[in-house]
UniProtKB/TrEMBL annotation:
This is Sulfatase. Residues 45-355 form the Sulfatase N-terminal domain. Its EC number is 3.1.6.-. It is an enzyme of class 3 (hydrolase). Gene3D superfamilies: Alkaline Phosphatase, subunit A.
Amino acid sequence: MSENRRPQVSRRGFLGGAAAVAAATAVPALAQVAVAGPAAAAGRPNILLIVTDDQPKHTEWALPKTVAWLADQGVKFTNGHVTTPLCSPSRSSVFSGRHAHNHGVRNNGASHSLDQSTTVQKYLKQAGYRTGLFGKYLNSWNLADNPPHFEDFALLQPGYVDAQWNVNGTVQTINGYTTTIVKNRTLNFLDKAATDTRPWFAYVTPYASHGPRTPEAKYAGTPVPDWNGRPSVPENDRSDKPAYIKNATGTLADGQTIRAEQLRTLLSVDDAVQAFKDKLQALGQLDNTLVIYVGDNGFSWGDHGWTAKSVPYRPAHEVPFYLSWPAGGLGSGTPDHRIVANIDIAPTILDAAGITPTAPQDGRSLLSSYSRDHLLVEWWKQGTGAGGAPTWSSYVAKDKQYTEYYDLTTDANGTVSGTGQVKFREYYDLVNDPYQLANSLYQATPAQEQALGIPALAAQLAADRVA
């Protein structure tokens, strides 16, 4: 979006002028905390970025220790999103701070389209940070290829037990549960801080809670709280939905199974996060470590009959999103209700580290007072085969969502082809219809569309898609 092209407010610049800003406007909760904090006096923070796989909201039951640390004592973003609900595009947005239509990784096959000179790990390493990657990297990445700008890494070929890894350039099988291996490799990386005085960046990304959702042996069969669905599960009347949703067959029982399996895999993630906190405390680095926790996309538990991601409905693009940085004034338990997204992670990290990126970014630092009124969310269909969601883009605000589906597809390299014709549209009043049951554009008259403000939303969406 064009509004995101404004020059970033640096952490130091924002803090220096915060009194004037606070006097003139009501800034979001996170910015208010940052004003009062000692961030300007702190040295460059360490960065711990934890990205889980396919983790939707409403999974906090499995993460009591994570929530107690990062949400209850840090910041919980209540409107956290991803800008493309698919693994590689989302992770590329995390790295670059850019929408998929700008970084070029439009599907899971196009990982090599990412310009590695524009990533947060490149900027941090160039600025003298020690960098490490532990877990999943990018789909379709050749395991034997070392991930650029990480000096210490254990790159996982996705799997849960006895998986293949590339450990600092050597491809090997490591026996054991992969979340535990990710945990231990990360702890070893953190331990080096005792003798290496450089600030560090750890990108930690377990395979949980991605399918096949294999739990650690000690958590297999662990009882989880009952869940009887929500109004969108499975939504029997889908006459106002696009064809692929009309044909979806997911049931409440399917959703219950997926949810239970996801929660069990996340119990091991919670153990790992607690171990990281304990290690940081032992090293004396807990206060000046910026920790960000986010899911790379959400997942549908039978909503509208759908049991996957890749769709414009809220369970697929809304994700858990937490942040903690006590030395930056962000360690006291603060809800932040701004619309935030994965594109904001790289700008936030660079802002905290005092680094100005040389390439443009679509996201904005969460340490600033910036608050968007809506977010572009987008997804591309790969290939021309039948089934699955067509290419779509969506205008997402707190109170409404407008979506267009297009005659467009991508090849394995992310190259787009098609007429671009709008094939179907949806509009949901999220205040009165939070579960997106009634598409207000279904059989709407031109006058009704005008009353909903559709022409202006369509124009804004068209502008966002090329910004």
